[in-house]
Amino acid sequence: MAPIPITIVTGFLGSGKTTLILNLIPQLPHTYKIALLKNEFGDVAIDSQLASSAAISGVQELLNGCICCNLVGQLGDALETLRKDVGPDRIIIETSGSAFPATLAMEVNRLGRETGNYVLDGVVVVIGVENWKGYDDTSYTAKMQQKYTDLIVFNKWELVDEQRYDECLDRVGDLELQIANVKSDKGRVDQSLLLGLDSALAKDGDSVSGGYSKDKPTHEHSKDHETEVEVLSVNLVSEGDKPKSVNLDSLETFLLSAPKDEVYRIKAIVSASHPMASSSGEVDESAGSQPGIAMYILNWAFGRWTFTYSDTPLPAPIGVASSTADTALSSTHETILRMTIVLARGEASKWKSRLEKGGLIEQEDEGGFLMVGRVI
Asked: Which 3 state secondary structure label does DSSP give 333?
């Protein structure tokens, strides 16, 4: 069974972490099961009742301490309880306080290695622009800790003037690190940016494409928010009757060349003749008994990636306007890669050109149609 992806959402008290999570739920398929592990200071769980009412399948609480420090030893037991009792598709860990996420992220990685039951998908730090004063510690140690942050979400920026928001950007810059950051839309961030692709989401066509389509808006909120990220849809279509494979050497070159301050997430279902190693060097051998071509889920997040076997059929391309699209979708052609790339603002045109030049996403042997479309 594939490991359960874990998303860590951390930040100062009152920054809007629970709101971010609750706004995530409606964006997911109705059958998708999320379990929540919360950490509250004090002995009263303030908003777990709220979380329980928002289609979250299970909640565990760790009280009276910081999960990043003195409660880290209890993490394994809490995760195991959720895994056995809920069987979730994903676990979200919400932690309060000012602690950097490195200790918690390292503990999740350790539990993943030892049990094989979990994989760290991403670390999201929420900053409430209205009240945040900056980091208390900007030392070398603090910078090393903050390297475990994948994405900073600026929340409540609508309540202040532009100068206050610029001050927050400057304070983030004090750590001298390139960390992806976006503004929320009243506590909402698109799920394609917060979550990677997993086996449960891969069964949902909209989730594979990040929920984006040329034919419909990403959501009903302001258009200004949509410019926070740009999205490319990539489809590779083979020709002929025999199953084809994506060139994994070229794909790995692409993954290694993507700077995490330009490319935020890469999600794909890939047809491959063998598994590709993840960024940690691990290889998923689940398809060992399956001869020939198999399907895999690629989940690249801020410089790290996993490549796991999937029994999910590869959906047909959508949301791409291309002169070759009609030809590519004929009965003698087969989609062998469907990918969504979520990029920082202003990066889509550059990466679209790079991909179309060739050498990064291609068929294992010669041939195939590459279609790259700008979605937003």
From this structure: strand
C-alpha 346: how far from chain center: 20
Give bridge partners of residue 250 from the DSSP assignment: none
Question: Which amino acid type is present at position 286?
Answer: S
Number of residues assigned to the chain: 376
Pairing of strands 229-239, 333-344: antiparallel
- The secondary element (H helix, E strand) that includes residue 357 is helix 348-357
Q: What is the reported pLDDT for 6?
A: 93
Please state, in angstroms and rounded to a whole number, the distance separating the CA atoms of residues 364 and 376: 29
**Cβ(93)–Cβ(118) below 8 Å:** no
d(CA 21, CA 36): 9
φ, ψ of residue 84 to 5 degrees: the values are: -75, -40
Secondary structure E strands in the chain: 4-11, 34-40, 58-63, 90-96, 118-128, 151-155, 180-183, 229-239, 263-272, 294-301, 304-310, 333-344, 369-374
**Which tens digit of pLDDT belongs to each residue from 293-338?**
888 889 898 788 888 888 766 555 444 444 344 444 444 578 899 9
